[in-house]
Amino acid sequence: MSAKYERIKQADLSLPAPLRWLTRAFSSITLSVILLSLVCLYGIAATIPVLYLALTGAYTVIGLITVGLAAVAGFVLLRRVTALPWYVRVAGCLAMLAFGGVVGVRLGYLAYEQLNSVPWLLEHRATVIYRLPWLEMTELEFYAWWPMQIILILFVLNMVWATIRRIEFKFANLGVLTVHSGIVVMAIGSILYGHFKVEGDTILWRRDLGGTFENVFYDAHEPALYIDVDDRQLMVPIPELPRYNDYPVGSLDIHLHRFPQVREMLGENVRLTIPGFKPYADLEPVWRPLRTPDDHAAALATSPALRIALGDDDGPADEMHLTLASNMPAERLMERQGYTVEYLLRPSRERIEDLSTSIAGEHGLIIEIPEHGYREAHAIEPGQTINLDELGYRFTIRDVGEYGMPFVTAGYEDATDTQATIEVTTPDGEQFTRMSLYRYPERTQDFVPSDDPAAGPMGERRDPDPSIRLVYLDSSRWQYHLVADRADADVVGLALRMPGGESTFTALPEQRIRVPGRSEGLGWLYIEQIIPLAGRMTEPRPTPRDRRDASEEGTYINSLLPVRVEVDQPDEQGGTWSRLVWMRHMRYPKYPDQVHRPVFVDLPEVGQVRLAFSRRRFELPFAIALDHFEMQPYPGSQIPQDFTAELLISDVDEHGLMHNQPDRHIVHMNHPLNYRATSSAPLALQRIKISQTGWDPPDSQNPAAAEERDEQGRFLNQQRFTILGIGNNVGIRIIALGATMVGVGIPWAFYIKPWLTRREMRRLQREFAEQAQQRPQHPDVDTDDNAITPTEPHPRTPEHSAV
Question: Where is the composition biased (Basic and acidic residues) (predicted)?
Answer without folding.
Answer: 793-803
